[in-house]
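Lab notebook, design round three. We kept the backbone fixed and only want residue identities now. Task for the bench partner: fill in a sequence for the structure below.
Input structure tokens:
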């Protein structure tokens, strides 16, 4: 049985440039079971195809933003010829011939959209192929659109290694018992049924296998050497219980032994000839003791790597530990601070002390680590006093912050706030999404505060104020202010940027001019 695992394409506002960890781990597991597995990254391959000509891309993905037309194409047999041409070009980027199972790993609404489109097109060409969907986005939202996925054969919820392997094994039997496979959604009499068998979540001991992916597409020039930044996950789950978070389905925290992590990193570094790693844990701040022992192990075994953490909580990180993080190879930390207002942090259940967070930013900066800060604006019951508190936090710590990553608050499916909206004093909660490919979010009124229309205006104002503060206090001494007016900087920070071809060209000029030094958060747009 031959298996093909795919990372689907997505729009330009989806980060790329790093190999997909999920399918690489699943590939390693299945290959270890002596199955024939091929994997490919269509997200990166499409970007390579379009990289040379921004104005007239070879494969036009922007046309698929019209989700109503996409839905008609999929479900109402209202074929759009331009869609079919683009989808055929995407499928031609890899080989599907003679494969028995094709699996799509889905992490976002855009990846879900393209997975559905490619599946239907694929079924027209290879009618006997089985298609399997999986990934965190589908796991979190499966109840919203399960009935419409009639063109999909199987769906795996949660970790895919064991369910996928058992699914492959079941095809060897005359009468497969899909109900015996954990975390599997299968069809019976034309209806989807969820297996009652659950799988205990643990940290996979499998070392990801990136062979078969378009490795040359991930190359970045570091110290005169072309390298790949490899993703690695030390833990699963999160110690935090943020009220806005949608990942409530994974309650427990599972952590790999330090010896295992060190051995894996050494193996991957040697195998792929790279010193660059990104740890994509939900929160790398597992505990002070664990981080200290981990860094000491990296130093002791002379891994000589450079690494970043995508998410880390600003607490229990003293000067000594941050110094060890730097010595172990850390060059960037992304701190989930979210707000400079104590009241908002309390509503978020963030359990962050802003005074401690400021000290950590300063100590981290002094240790030689770049600090990125994640902020959420327009949270429930946020007012101008809260925005001013966040502005003060930015000003106070401007010297120690490398860049700020802004996110507008969205009331998301399966978040604590949505599931307990009366407790959080909001009402008139109504879906905003028009179809299953739109961003899944909800509008609301604050019971003792702003209604939805006023809330939207407030969010825009809050974002503008925060951005102006960043521009004035963090960028004023950098050369880019002399050649970049504020209005351009504002446009670069909005999603409209990704849909505007002219702005993409302007952005490309700036990043080439500064050799991608000043725009770390969007430099993946090549």
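Proposed sequence:
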């Amino acid at each position: 049985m031959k298996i093909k695992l795919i990372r689907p394409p997505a729009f330009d506002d989806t980060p790329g440039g790093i190999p997909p960890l999920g399918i690489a781990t699943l590939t390693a597991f299945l290959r270890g079971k002596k199955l024939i597995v091929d994997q490919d990254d269509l997200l990166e391959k499409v970007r390579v195809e379009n990289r040379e000509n921004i104005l007239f891309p070879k494969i036009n993905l922007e046309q698929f933003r019209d989700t109503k037309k996409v839905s008609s194409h999929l479900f109402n047999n209202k074929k759009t010829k331009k869609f079919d041409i683009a989808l055929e070009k995407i499928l031609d980027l890899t080989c599907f011939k003679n494969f028995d199972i094709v699996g799509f790993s889905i992490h976002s609404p855009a990846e879900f959209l393209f997975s559905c489109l490619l599946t239907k097109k694929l079924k027209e060409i290879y009618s006997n192929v089985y298609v399997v969907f999986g990934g965190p986005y589908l796991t979190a939202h499966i109840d919203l659109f399960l009935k419409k996925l009639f063109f999909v054969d199987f769906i795996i919820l949660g970790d895919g290694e064991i369910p996928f392997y058992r699914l492959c094994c079941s095809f060897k039997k005359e009468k497969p018992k899909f109900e015996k496979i954990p975390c599997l959604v299968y069809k019976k009499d034309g209806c989807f049924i969820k297996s009652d068998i659950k799988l205990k979540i643990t940290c996979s001991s499998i070392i990801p296998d990136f062979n078969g992916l378009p490795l040359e597409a991930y190359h970045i020039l570091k110290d005169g050497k072309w390298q790949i930044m490899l993703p690695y996950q030390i833990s699963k789950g999160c110690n935090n219980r943020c009220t806005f978070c949608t990942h409530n389905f994974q309650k427990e925290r599972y952590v790999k032994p330090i010896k295992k992590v060190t051995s894996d990193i050494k193996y991957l570094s040697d195998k792929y000839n790279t010193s660059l790693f990104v740890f994509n844990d939900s929160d790398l701040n597992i505990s002070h003791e664990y981080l200290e022992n981990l860094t000491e192990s990296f130093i002791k075994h002379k891994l000589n790597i450079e690494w970043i953490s995508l998410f880390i909580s600003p607490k229990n990180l003293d000067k000594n530990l941050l110094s060890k993080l730097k010595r172990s190879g850390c060059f960037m930390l992304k701190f989930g601070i979210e707000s400079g207002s104590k009241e908002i942090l309390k509503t978020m259940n963030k359990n962050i002390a802003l005074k401690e967070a400021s000290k950590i930013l300063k100590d981290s900066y002094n240790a030689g680590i770049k600090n990125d800060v994640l902020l959420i604006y327009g949270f429930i019951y946020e007012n101008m006093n809260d925005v001013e508190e966040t502005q003060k936090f930015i000003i106070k710590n401007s010297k120690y912050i490398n860049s700020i990553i802004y996110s507008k608050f969205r009331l998301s499916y399966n978040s604590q706030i949505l599931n307990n909206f009366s407790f959080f004093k909001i009402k008139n909660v109504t879906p905003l999404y028009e179809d299953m490919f739109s961003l899944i979010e909800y509008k609301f009124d604050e019971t003792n505060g702003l209604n939805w229309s006023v809330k939207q205006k407030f969010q825009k104002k809050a974002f503008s104020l925060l951005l102006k503060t960043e521009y004035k206090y963090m960028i004023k001494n950098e050369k880019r202010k002399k050649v970049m007016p504020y209005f351009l900087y504002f446009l670069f920070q909005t999603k409209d940027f990704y849909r505007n071809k002219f702005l993409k060209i302007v952005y490309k000029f700036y990043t080439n001019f500064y050799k991608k030094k000043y725009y770390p958060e969007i430099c993946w747009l090549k």
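Keep this in mind before ordering anything: The two ends are 37 Å apart (CA to CA).
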